Amino acid sequence: MQGEHGEIGLVEQADPAKSEEGPEPAAGSLVVVTVEDGDPEFAKAIEEQLSVVTAWWKAGPEPGEGFVQTILRAPEERHDVERFLHSSGIRDAAEDEALVLYVTSHGAVGTSSRHFLLLPGTDTDRLLATGMPTNEVVVAALDSRARHVLVIVNACEAEGIDVELRGLARDLVRPGSSGRALNVVATTGTRSPVLGREFAVVLRMAFEWFQDAAGIARPYLSISEFIQALEQATDRLNDERDLSLPGPRTVLQGRLGTPIPTLPNPGYRPKPQVVTEAREEVAATPEELEYWLDRASGRASRDDPGWYFSGRQELNRRLTSFVKGPAGVLIVTGTAASGKSAVLARAVTLSDSAFRASPRYAEAVSQAPADTVPDEGSIHVAVSARNRGPLSLIEAIGARLGGERDRAQPAADALRQWQEGLRTFFTTRQQGTVTVVVDGLDESPEAGACIRDVLVPLAGYAGGPGTADRISVPAQAADSTSAEPSSGHSGLRLLIGVRSTSPGTPVASAATGVPGLVQELRLVFPAAQVVRTDGGGVQADIAAYVTALLAGAPWGTDPKEIASAAERVARHAGRSFLDARLAAEQLRRSDGVTLLRDQLWLSRLARGTVGLFEQDLNQVGDDGLNREEALALLRATAFGLGRGMPWAQVWPAVASALLQARIDHADEKIRRLLEGRLAGYLTHDIEDDHVVYRPAHEQLGVMLRQWPQPPQETRKALDEPG
């Protein structure tokens, strides 16, 4: 459907730029009918509605994107509306065109139960002759060829279209039309006046809610999500203004829970695809990469690719050497926050072909030390064991490798199906050695079962010929350069990231819930190599890391001053990159020289994560937040299951329960939290098409779940190295 120019004051194209042949086809069309009554206040209310409607169903940046906007302004007579329906082409909307019709006007229901739009020339005693039957406008959209149609009627007694529309809807059913999604929304009930500015407010509240708090990560919404947001906004408006508006309702609905192209999601932001999906769970996030490439910190000069690419060289060499070598097992371990996941993420990211092909990162890759850069494609699959049991973990590995379940096994035993399917994959594949990374084994609620039912068989199947359930892991010759497995079978390099716990400190073991995992792995994989991220040289690595973080700080004009500050932080941070980052961020935000002389701050730094968190928590008033409410909001994320805590109604509800008091205007306070000094304590992910939030490190999660903090002796035990 193409919108067209009409007489001045009647029809207008929101984007007037078009060629003589007409505008390019768009993904959708927005058709708006506005009927004024001569009251300047009502005219202003219509303008407020239009500002939201045209922002929600906006024109796209390129031809064929977004919505062509065609608007009828201030018709005087019924003929003006009828002519618009013809000239706009609404009845001829194409099958694959998302069609949205928005109507706002005064209205009335006649004694025949038929609804009419009241035009300036309407005689209420002669509605049939001088009013505009509302359903003639509605049906013009519904009876088009478009598969997806959304109609919103904002008029007095808009619900009155229901009776007639139900009868007309029978004529909308055509052969082959079963897949159509036709939705009609009425904003007012019987004997209710049109919602002028009120509906503009409701629509804007819903629009803003979808932009962040709803957390929906797909491009389109469902009609049920749309109506729910309008209802919530109506309730909020009723509370704020002491009103009793009933809220909008659907008078015709189709595909209630299915996302539809007539409802674009205002909060949708396409996720940058830095690496391929098979490696995405463990690879560095776009935010982490941009942090090092864009900010002043980590970019001391144009020739410096950033600490992320150039730091921790010895560890990175070990991993690079392993993924270039023969089949085998490598365990990457260390105490909490010592950088296990970061080291694995760097290797996974640098091995990815999509990442390597990106001009954005080419310079950083080329300038990183060559012996710390894995070969392109050398890591095939990388998954996280976080909150996964054995079935979920083996399915994630198998699906990303391109394997299939063995359907010959009992259907009720999906784990066995995947075990046998992966056996087939490795014993029939003739294309060299496969590398699989499994990070966060200690964050699995069934870590022992994951070792027994996934990792042991997986490593065994890659070990050589034979069909036994247990095949010994191949010996790993450090001086071997051949990457080809023996006996013609595909080999496996298995990298496992797991936190170690301190022997003899039961409190530390209890905090992870997985005591002795490293020892268990070494028992079942006696030939495995072990790399520790908290060994010798870690303090120098942390000092280099802090130096990169402080580069560009306003007070850091003297390199010697920066180096001195970094060394001091490194001495206090022990083996924790997390504590080093938190300390560096506090130094960047203030006068670092003065802060380093503050004995109270130094004592908090000595207490590690807890002390640094208390420092930030005591200053949240600068972000416009109440300390106890901010703490409750942060703590709530530590209790989320799966990948994290969704925002929507869940995050505020959990935080209020922890606080044992309602948090008023919780969405606004969450926005401030995510924009303020406490944002660094959180990370986000996507689960079930929703953005979810969780502590940026499991050590933060443990701390927040245990708040208020245990006595000093217990804290020391928690922080002891393992």
In short:
With 722 residues, the chain is of the alpha/beta class. It is 41% helix and 13% strand.
Could you please describe the fold and organization of this structure?
The protein has 722 residues and is of the alpha/beta class. It is 41% helix and 13% strand. It is built from 29 helices and 18 strands. Strands 1-3-2-4-8-9-10 form a 7-stranded mixed β-sheet, sandwiched between helices. Helix 1 links the parallel strand 2 and strand 3. Helix 1 runs parallel beside helix 6 and helix 25 crosses helix 26. The longest helix has 19 residues. It is globular and about 90 Å long. The N terminus and C terminus are likely disordered.
Secondary-structure map with pairings?
Blueprint: E1 11-13, E2 28-34, H1 40-56, E3 67-73, H2 78-87, E4 98-105, E5 107-109, E6 115-117, H3 127-130, E7 132-133, H4 134-142, E8 148-155, H5 162-168, E9 181-186, H6 197-211, H7 223-241, E10 249-252, H8 286-294, H9 307-310, H10 313-324, E11 328-334, H11 340-351, H12 353-357, H13 359-367, E12 381-384, H14 390-401, H15 414-428, E13 434-439, H16 447-461, E14 492-499, H17 506-512, H18 517-524, E15 529-532, H19 538-550, H20 559-573, H21 577-589, H22 592-595, H23 599-606, H24 609-617, H25 627-637, E16 645-646, H26 650-659, H27 666-675, E17 682-687, E18 690-695, H28 698-705, H29 712-719
Parallel strand pairs: 2-3, 2-4, 4-8, 8-9, 11-14, 11-15, 12-13, 13-14
Antiparallel strand pairs: 1-3, 5-6, 6-7, 9-10, 16-18, 17-18
Helix pairs in contact: 1-6, 6-7, 10-11, 14-15, 14-16, 15-16, 16-18, 17-29, 19-20, 19-21, 20-21, 21-24, 23-24, 25-26
